[in-house]
Design a protein that fits this description.
The chain is α+β, with helices and mostly antiparallel strands and 168 residues long. The chain is built from 4 helices and 8 strands, in the order ββααβββαβαββ. The protein has helices at residues 24-32, 34-40, 97-111, 127-135; strands spanning 6-9, 14-18, 55-61, 64-74, 81-88, 117-120, 139-149, 156-165. The chain has an 8-stranded mixed β-sheet, with helices on both faces. Helix 3 (97-111) crosses helix 4 (127-135).
Amino acid sequence: MDHVSRLELMDGRLLLRELAAADRAELTRIHREPAVARWWEQPADQFPWDEPGSTRLTIVYEGAIAGLIQYWEELEPKYRHAGIDVFLDPPLHGRGIGSAAVAALARALIELRGHHRITVDPAVANGAAVRAYEKAGFERVGVMRRAERDTGGEGWHDCLLMELVRGE
């Protein structure tokens, strides 16, 4: 099975595609936006190629770079599933773009990659992300206490484990 590398959505207005070197400056600009950096921290020097265990796709909306979506896979047969994370340029928040991108990638991971379960784990305090994932079909499973470092690494915050299970 090949990795998911291209999905066209929303009547062609939304595209998820492989990262290109030319995307780096705009993705870095978006990543540094305070509303994004609050949850993703500041980008690493190697961004967007700093997480080799994840497959990252550029989100393009109406022809412009809108953000990044990534997935990772647990391939051990007994525990096989995938996880998703996403960020969007703040002016695009609240327009259904993130939910559409997440729902489409989750469908592709189920249909093309054979996963039966997809997880996400936004910070409990990130209400916008939680609502976007719920809109994409994810359900709340439970709170993972002190599961993620706060931006800057000074403390910890809770994350909400959410999942989408094929056939439910």
